[in-house]
Structure formats: C-alpha cells, structure tokens
User: What shape does this take?
Amino acid sequence: MEQFQHPGPISKVYLRDNVIHGPIPDSIFQLLGLIQLSLANNNFSGNVQVEMLSELKNLTFIDLSYNALLSVTGKVTLPQLEYVCLSSCSITKVPIFLGTLSFIYLDLSNNTIFGRISQLQLGNCSNLSYLNLSHNLLTSVDYISSMANLLSLDLSSNLLRGQLVDLPTGVIFFSASNNDLTGVIPPSFCNGSRVQSLDLSHNGLSGNIPKCLAKSTADTEFLNLAMNNFHGSIESLMFPDQCGVTALMLNDNQFEGPLPSSLVNCRGLDILDVGNNRINDSFPNWLLKFQFLQVLILRFNQFHGPIGNSSTRFRSPWLRVLDLSHNQFSGILPASFFNNFEAMKSGYKVDVKLNYLHSFFWYILFNNFVFKRCRDPDGKGFIHFHMHRSFQ
Assistant: This one.
C-alpha cells in the first residue's frame, strides 16, 4: 500500500475487507486528527509499535483484526483509546500497552494467548462493557466479578479450569463453552442477573440446574447447557409466565424425569434439544403447537406412547428438524402430523437463518429409520419418505 501523499484533516480511515498487503504505511500514523482507524481483514504484515500511535491524541478506536501476519509491540500510555480490536492477529501474549487503558471494548479473540490473564494486564476495566477472549489458550482470567459495567463476556474455546466465577449483575451475554470447567452453576447466575444469552456447553459441569435459573428466563433468550454432566429431574423447573427462551439446549447430559410442564410458557421457542438424556415422558404434543418451533430433538431418551392421533392438529409451519429416534414410541403415525410442516415442504424457499443447523438437508428420524425429504417430480415440493424400518 502506498503512503498518504498529502495528509490532511482526516478523522476516520476505513480500509477493512480488502486484500491490501505489506506493512502499514507510516503516513497513517501522521494523521494527527485521526479518531477512528480500521484496517481489519486484510493481509497487512510486520510489527505495529504502539509508540507510533502516541502522536494520535484523538484516536479512540483501532481495529487491526484478521491480519494474521501482524504483530503489536511496545509500551506507551494511550489513555484516550476506548475501542481496541486485535482479533486473529497471531498474538501470543497480552500487549503491554493494554495495561494503560480504560477502555469500553476489547477483542483479543482467535489468538494464541496462553495461561493466566491478570487484572494488571487488562488495565482499568471499570468502564469495560465488551470483552472477547475466546479461542485462545487461557487457563484463568482474574477479576471478572469486579468489571462492574460489563455487558458481554466471551471466554469460549480456551483451556479454563476450575469452577465458574461470579458474574457482574449487568452481564447480558456470557459464553464459557468448550473449556474444562467443573463444579456447579453458582446462584449468582440468576440472582439479580439479567443474562439474555448463556452458553456453558462442552464442559464438565455437574449438579442440578438451579431452579432460580429457570425462573429468571423472562430475560433469557438463549440457554445452552449441552455436553456436560448435569443430572437430576428437570420436571420441577418453573419457567415463568412471560418466559422469553427461544433456544434451549440440554442435550448430552444425565437429566431424568418428564419435561417440565411450565415449558409451555415459552411460546416463542425456536429450538429445543434434550437428546441423549434419561427423560421419561410421553410425546409433548403441545410443543408442536408452538408457532416458531424450528428444531425439536428428543432422541436417545425414554419417551414412550403414541404420537397424537387422527384428530390431533399440529401447527409448526417453521419446523425443519425433528428427531425422535431411539425412544419407545408406539402406535400409528397420523398423517396430520405432517400437514403443516411447511418449511420442510418448501425447502430453500423459506428464508430462515438457523445457525444451529450444520447443513441444509432437512430430515426426520424416527426409531432407527430415516424419513428423507425429496422434491416431488411435479415440482410442488411435497414430502416423500424412504423408510428403512417399520414404525413400532
């Protein structure tokens, strides 16, 4: 990239999402009126010495993310910086200059930072509202509970061990998925908390789900406790009348008993996955009356009995994935079961973004055989089935 020939009173430089390569031009650091600098998602290389930023007295925002060959070194006081984005820059340790900041937004995700991060390394965190340390090699992060203004905290995909720490009461988003955490969910996760998205999946957490966690779901929309060692009956969980949960993943644990009847209060539910547990219940016909339900997975449990009857009306026009395999369902499968599965019939015509899915091949699994959606030869998109085994 060429140098800025005649630097003028430029306050914002946005060069992100290009294929610019080579070192960052020195002339950028001579734009003394610069307030915001974004060079993310390019091929910049070399070393950015933070001393080069020291003359930019008005700079409050810097984004160098997704430049894999770029390194950041040096120690200088930059008290004016509030937004720092250094994701995917091959950083191996917390840059020293961050210890001088009192920032609002910090993203160090997708690097190779190893070990423990102390409060000293993160500087003054009293104003910090967004902190993303995901996809590193961290074993411990100190003083989380002291970050009084924190709203979003992502610690997923690290090497964190031990028990969950208490969260500041203002946190709205928290993820610690894909770590080695153990122990139980502390009461602080629901007492006075207003978490809207909580992801603790893929850990070694155990114990029962705190009843207060279900009661606090008036604010919670996304709750993922999958792939842990949780156990006990979930029947007693009391979801409030104004339950706001849209995605509930409890799969791959050791939960027992029937589904909680109060789950009927979560009328906006998009995703329910309780697969690979020990749940003993009849088929939850009431779930298929949820207007927005898209994924229902009950596989590998002890569900039993019939699935509706000839007069049962199911209203799930958005349903795309339904997995009832490896249970003890019996009786006939009523034709009315499929009449309103419009999303399955129309396939790609339904424009729904569903990150939970890993492919666009919609399928239904029932007790060791597969019903596959095929397009009708006349192009109307009706559902046809290939049966590998008869229904019990």
Summary: Confidence is low (pLDDT under 50) at residues 348-392. The CA atoms of residues 239 and 262 lie 5 Å apart. The first strand starts at residue 12 and ends at 14. The chain has three helices and 29 strands.
